[in-house]
Amino acid sequence: MRNLIIGFIAFLYFSTATYAQVTKEMEPSWLDDIHYSKSDIDIDDVSQGTHTLLYDTQINVPQQTVFYRVTTKVTDNVGIQNASTINISYDPSYQKLKFHKIHIIRNTEIIDKLNISNIEVMRRELNAESHLYDGALSAVMNISDVRTDDIIDYSYSIIGFNPIHKNIYSTNFFLNDFKSIGKIHVTLLSKNKLNHKAFNTSAKPVISKVNNLNKYEWEASNTKKIEFEDDIPGWKLMYETVFVSEFNSWKEVVDWGLDIYKIDEKVDTELQAKIDEINAAYETNGEKIKATLNFVQNEIRYLGLENGIGSYKPFSPNQVFKQRFGDCKDKSLLMVNMLSKMGIEAYPMFVNTYLKQTIKDLLPSPKIFDHCVVKVIDGSERWYDPTITNQGGYYDSTHFPDYAHGLVLKKGNDSFDDIKLYSENKIETFEEYTIDSIGKGARLKVVTIYHGGEADNMRNYYKSNSINSIQKEYEKFYSNYYYNVSSLKAPQFEDKLNLNTFKIYEEYKLDSIWQPMAEKTDHISATFIPSSLLNSLYLPNNDKRNSELAIVYPITREHQIKIKLPTDWGIKNEKLFVTSPGFYYEWKVDYDRKEKTINLNYYLKTLKDHITQDEFRIYNQDAKKVDQTTAYMIYIPKNFSNMASISNGSNILFDGIVAIAKLLFIIGIIITIVLLIFWYTQRKKAK
Predict the structure, then answer these.
(1) Average pLDDT, whole number, for the chain?
(2) What is the per-residue pLDDT for 315?
(3) Which of 191, 252, 376, 393 is a good FRET partner for 217, with 20 to 30 A between their CA atoms?
(4) Does 295 lie in the same domain as 241?
């Protein structure tokens, strides 16, 4: 009963505190009055039944206030659902939300819909599945009686900046959207002069002075929606984007980071004992680095409490060690601290997992980073990601993702590290098909060897799933290609942790590998596909492209398929070599007549992470060449099991039939010559 009362009081306190942070107030007096036009609608650009007439953002840096006004016209009944729901997120640890107005404008009538008691406040935690909890709340209001042709006009302010930034302001905003917008307006008021940089737009701010504040103003009217292409690189900035920052250099960002990552307490006895244990158990620094990484990766579980300053400031290594959980910055600082106590030079490093090479073009700001990793210097430079688990390899061969560039928190540093990749993420696949007889089934043996990051992924997959479920998944995979697939035994695996290879053995019975041919109704065919190459290359559906094309990098795929035939077939040897922008590819067909075996060999290696617009035409041509060789088909007439055909539309007869045909042809020539001689002799006698 006591716990129930305490729980009720806690709930009551939370509700009261929450609603105290969501209030109703008049709009700030320092705002500019921004107008919109009802006629600025291109009906052909309207989607989902709504059109945004105005998106207004006005920021007062000294007052730590961001004002928003959104004005939306409902053009069709399908847009009522979205237009009538207002959902605003804020962090209650340092922010307050103030509503100013919620109006429905219907013809000339203005209907006031703002009633603070109708606003529901709830936790959002959109990243809970990733074990990240930011503590953000959502204030949600459903507006009643919204109709087609109504205009929804609402405004609100969020008060409070994250104190971790120590009053050094930075942000970014967009001047267009995935939908057309009548007007986008942005104003910034600041005591200090702001650095600003625009991407994908020539728009420049109107700069003036207002009440001793620097005023920066951007505006875009009748914006066009963005047309997205498939597989655009994550680092490509597609929107018309403006970055603003009071930071003047990356050194200032490093200094900011050093301050918040500073450790103000001594290592406690429990953590020191663990450090001493690793230090004594291993002789070389490389072994100590790897052992420390293994401990932080596998014994400190990933969990992020990201609200308020926790979104940037790590917990102390002592606390992380005791609680045995932490996010990227917590785990990185713990690893750095442990290595430093062993006399090994190590530093936290900020990266952005998406922006990659673009990050060096942006204005300095800690807000553009989304991840923290570790740099270690021990003769050579190495980088480690403590958030990955169950990584194999030695200290100098542990896989590190392609983050491209990182900002190391080292005193005096003012530039990015260019990260060198030393893992090719290779997959070797060996498939052996033994065909029982023409038109029936086959036995399939598969051996797959994963290297580098691919081995790490597969190791985690096997640790996280039962063998029975994996077996069913594998059967399901091959059932996409063949009829009635059944495992002859459960998958077996061999994990060589130090070499970081993960080897899997599989064996299947395929009831039938033959299918009727659509284009040759009196034929059946069997197709063999190098599955490890699937989805490795993007296959364009047109010859033109307006942006870069992302390709998977770095990867290497070696796939060998051996097909044991029930009888001797006429197969011709073939080969193809493709050196293309972004990848290299080899394909070979070798037929062993003595063993009655077809050997298909595939090799693919990507060379970079994207294709430029100038390279796209050649890439497109080369990718099609690759696509034409991946599916290898043999086919024969349904009622003639002694004749075979080769893939890619080239037909060749069974060798015995070919030999007979050749013999008959030679005999025919001899008979013809004899008849000609006989005819010539008889004609000469007649004369």
Answers:
(1) 88
(2) 92
(3) 252
(4) no
What does the alpha-carbon distance between residue 28 and residue 189 come to, in Å, rounded to a whole number? 13
**What is the domain extent for residue 668?**
655-687
Q: How many CB atoms lie within 10 A of CB 307?
A: 17
Judge if 205 and 273 occupy the same domain: no
> Cα–Cα distances in Å, from 651 out to 79, 562, 569, 641, 644?
58, 20, 11, 15, 8
| C-beta atoms surrounding 385 within 10 Å | 23
- Coil, helix or strand at residue 405: strand
Residues 631 and 545 in one domain: yes
**Domain-terminating residue out of 418, 435, 451:** 418
| Same domain as 582, residue 484 | yes
Encode 71-133 in three state secondary structure: EEEECCHHHHHHHCEEEEEECCCCCEEEEEEEEEEECCEEEECCCHHHCEEEECCCCHHHCEE
What average pLDDT does range 342-366 have in this prediction?
Answer: 96
pLDDT in tens, 427-454: 999 999 999 888 889 999 999 999 999 9
Q: Between the CA of residue 228 and those of 224, 238, 633, what are the distances in Å?
A: 12, 8, 36
Cα 8 from Cα 14, distance rounded (Å): 10
Beta carbons within 8 Å of 539's beta carbon, 6+ residues apart: 623, 624, 627
Q: Pairing state of beta strands 426-435 and 556-564? A: parallel
pTM summary value: 0.86
CB 240 within 8 A of CB 194: no
Query: Which residue type does 371 have?
Result: H
* Residue 528 belongs to a domain: yes
Task: Return the amino acid letter for 121.
Answer: V
Q: Same structural domain for residues 565 and 454?
A: yes
Q: Which of 622, 545, 542, 637 has the alpha carbon at shortest distance from 587?
A: 622
Last residue of a domain, one of 363, 392, 418: 418
Same domain flag for 294 and 349: yes
